[in-house]
């Protein structure tokens, strides 16, 4: 296993996502992409080179797409009727979170403002709280 | 932010990967897919239905592809010459890890044995140790 | 324009989906893929050749993925808060529809029974009714 | 089935496209993407924000790719030798239609003029006429 | 540049494909994938392990898709009206070649017989002859 | 087979790349995409139209991604431990080549200078030399 103790290594239980289903789910997948969205927006603000900005816009689009995809997978494939009963806000929360990552007004696709990226991260944190609570239960 | 204390929530710093580059990298992306590979292998062993097994083989293939992709990104985009100097085993480690996730003899694509999935996870843990050590530095 | 009168030609208004957004949405995109899912299930039942069946399982998986994707896009990108207020069943309907197209128990991915494909088509028809009603309003 | 009568609902027979083949084909798939291409061009003309325009160019590119793909599928997978005999213009029609959706001079990828999008729609309408005539036969 | 003389190195002029267009086209792209299709069919015949065969069927499907895609790109994007005039067989040749790579009766997707893969290679060789002749012109 | 003698036709042995593995590998796949990258950079320099340039940036990004992918496949799937022993520079060569095709400083993704595309082509030529030497052995 090697050089390092477990101290440094992430403690996250394996959790993720396909549709066998394999049973592995993890909101970290959405969060990582959303961190990327926000980081791209920050780099965009700090760099006026038009070619860089064109690349930033394009890459942010793809990353925000991944955010939406990972969230949709959690909403449809991980969460079950009893969860929706226990957390009645869950449908709307996912709908808002995926809209926030999209191309509508103020969405992280249509905006270059890092606050729109942060908004997505905040929604994902809320979802993540609920997700881990259901895991504990 | 909501319901839960930070205790339950993953502690991982946001870290991931595109090629703007956004500067966000995280071995968790490879690990989550590798966990899926192993979980699929276990479900395959426990279920003899031929249609289920066909789906398992197909989906494992895609997940193992993602493992390879996430590792290649780390190897090329995150790690820099000084890292390779400090960790001379790094090239070979990545080469072995991506081979272990592939279709060669004993690789996680060509094998339905969960031990081949575990082998990939072990390599990713080694890479992750080094990754987080470079982050600390 | 050519040979035929308009009689034969589909009457559907152009309606679809990207996330510019272009403003074009159409439940037909999900429906066409779901028809494919069901047709593949029927062909699977009628053909015992193992290679054919392996291909059918694989291709159905992709088509069911597209069903889910097209539905998610409608749910997040087309439908807005006032719609969800007017049709309070909409969240659950989409959640059920995408689950029905997925890999859970009885879902169209995990089942080779054309009835599971028909179930997805029925949900899409319900969604389509609501969609066109909102267009009329 | 629910709320609405059939009046409002699209009447299109299910028709589409994979390569099992499932036997389901539908020119509506190409048409919907082409409507999107044209709508994007119109929105581009109406909005001078450079970030919006960069996104529009990128998304139009993808949508035009889908147009080409759906048309190629019809040309290769749906139409058979007797069709090409009966409609000797069919090869050239498809070649022109896919070129019109592409990146050559005046093509809908390289042009931001909605007329180039309309040109693609016109070709698709011609193809659709022939398609539905062969279905009737 | 390194170790070897030019003797060993492939002599192919760079030639390929996107839709900027970059102007680079090369039938080798289709041919390489078709070689893969045929090689997979041969390996399938030589190996009765069901998991291997499932993977072979799945991977062949993807490779045959790439064959079709690369051929469609040549047909639409590289060849121009004067070419179609000079080589009146070209439309039908491409139509047959892409059908041969597809899922119809005897096509390389639906068949595990290496002869179906060879048939695709033969068509590509014909197309390649014409392609290189137009380059010389 | 048709019109032309073998003289004109490329002589390259079929060689490519999936992960069955089919056993077919060919550095030409990476090279063709890298030629495209460089050609796009040249066209970008010669054309100041902003919409053209936006498309060029976007398409180059995809092509450079393909270069990286094809190279990673060779590094992991084709080359084996004895090759790395015989060519100790191979790891670093591939790492440099994929970095040169990427988004780091001076990389072909982040630069519009055709020299960055040429740099990638030079690395691929070195790799190709070694590849064909191992084939001869
Ligand atoms: Ni999974
Ligand atoms: Ni990144
Ligand atoms: Ni749209
Ligand atoms: Ni189909
Ligand atoms: Ni090109
Ligand atoms: Ni291969």
UniProtKB/TrEMBL annotation, chains A, B, C, D, E, F:
Pfam families: Sod_Ni. GO terms for molecular function: nickel cation binding; superoxide dismutase activity. It comes from the Bacteria. SUPFAM superfamilies: Nickel-containing superoxide dismutase, NiSOD (SSF109770). InterPro entries: NiSOD_sf, Superoxide_dismutase_Ni-type. This is Nickel superoxide dismutase. It comes from Actinomycetospora cinnamomea.
